[in-house]
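Here is an idea for our session: we take a single protein and study its fold together. Which protein we use is up to you, so please pick one and set it down. Once you have written the record down, we can walk along the chain together:
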Amino acid sequence: MLGYLFFVVVFLLLILFVLVGVAFLTLLERSVLGYVHIRKGPNSVGFVGILQPFSDAIKLFSSEQYFPLVSNYLVYYFSPVFGLFLSLLVWLLIPYLSGFISFELGLLFFLACTSLGVYTVMVAGWSSNSSYSLLGGLRALAQTISYEVSLAFILFSFVILICSYNLVYFYLFQFYIW
């Protein structure tokens, strides 16, 4: 029982740190783009814009909700939530030093989770009940599938080299190799 509680707490901490890390990477991206375009970046909230991600989150959660009237709204709102869940589920596979979790077929689990993300894009486009959104979703679906096939071939070349699907062996194989 204590092991399961520890697993849940560590997983929730992992999700929290990943989301905060993505927020600050977005801030870094916006700052770099501001310098590239020779204009001011997001530097008005807090010291050097360090509170900008929190300001963006407050603005996101307090903005007005848009309800498409003719859409399949339950599926329309839960497909991005399912996509976020799938992308956070992939973070379980990273071999941490504490031995958080180890899958023997971790690479296949990674490919399965990333390929399920295709369905969230397709369902989001279909459930809006708009032909433009459906066409955009199908275009994104075709593009994602084509990228996944090349990624799978690249990853399988490493599987042949390492002779395992476990990502811990990928980590150990790189220990003495730069």
